[in-house]
Amino acid sequence: GWVVKLQNQATTALRPAYDDLVARLPDEGRLNIDETPNKRGPLKTWLWAFVATTFTVFALRLTRKAEELYAHVGQEFPGVVGCDRAKMYVRLKHLQWCWAHLRRDFQALIDSGDGQAKRLGHDLQREVDAMFGLWKRVRDGTLTRRGFKTLMRPIRQSVEALLLRGAFSGNRLFAGMCDELWRGRSHLWTFVDVEGVGPTNNDAERALRHAVIWRKLSFGTQSDAGSRFVETMLTAIETCRQQRRNAFDYIATAVAAHFAGDSPPLLPA
């Protein structure tokens, strides 16, 4: 009907700006990436969020496999990717594993009925709390990055020693997790060494929040065209929010340009 027709026109009007942002992803120095389940009719889909400093790209796809990731950022992405520990990210060179996820994992150890797990969880959580306390001071401007690096050294050593202890503990509850974290320990500390990188993936999770609310209200999409409309609109709205633009004004201008046969406005930083 007419609603679908309007949606398709909006997609066509906004798509050049969308494609321009997608093309810019591989050149970004830092990205936060996350994905959440979605639906297209009876099919399970995945909504990806690629959050850069001045724009966000959403992509609704039928898979959350690594090839979808590489299609957007390339296999040799030189920047830092903030992410969870999902397997599709492992081949990228520079990761920052999300400490908010890790904090929850350590809390789960504390909440378990196992005394050894409880003790390890408390020991790790103590170091994490100290780390976030220092990071808050960096963000407040009351601690220099140089000072932060110095104060992080013993915390870093302590966390890695605890992970190694856990990996060799023989306790099935946490030995595997500790082994994985110790082997990938360089991904824990990128934010200490690289300015502009944070310890959590909150930016990507925040970007997905509005999309998750939309999904709950709409029950997903019904067609490929519907998926393209949703990813395009979400990208335009979230990018306008990041750039402090009025999203309605921008979308109206793009649609008017489309009907007038003019080049649609892009979303430069």
Write the layout of secondary structure elements.
Elements lengths: L1 H23 L5 E11 L2 E9 L4 E6 L4 H8 L6 E4 L10 E4 L1 H13 L3 H26 L4 H23 L7 H9 L6 H4 L8 H17 L5 H19 L4 H14 L9
Parallel strand pairs: 1-4, 4-5
Antiparallel strand pairs: 1-2, 2-3
Helix pairs in contact: 1-9, 1-10, 3-4, 4-5, 5-6, 9-10
Explain the overall architecture.
- The protein has helices at residues 2-24, 66-73, 99-111, 115-140, 145-167, 175-183, 190-193, 202-218, 224-242, 247-260; strands at 30-40, 43-51, 56-61, 80-83, 94-97.
- It has ten helices and five strands.
- The protein has a five-stranded mixed beta sheet.
- It is elongated, with a radius of gyration of 21 Å.
What's this entry about, in short?
This protein is of the alpha/beta class.
Radius of gyration: 21 Å
pLDDT < 50 stretches: none
Percent helix range: 55-70%
Secondary-structure element series? HEEEHEEHHHHHHHH
| Main sheet makeup | 5 strands, mixed
Tally the helices: what do you get?
A: 10
Mean pLDDT: 92
What coarse outline follows from CA principal-axis ratios?
elongated
Q: Strands across the major sheet, in which order?
A: 3-2-1-4-5
Characteristics:
five-stranded mixed sheet; 13% strand; 58% helix; alpha/beta; single chain; 269 residues
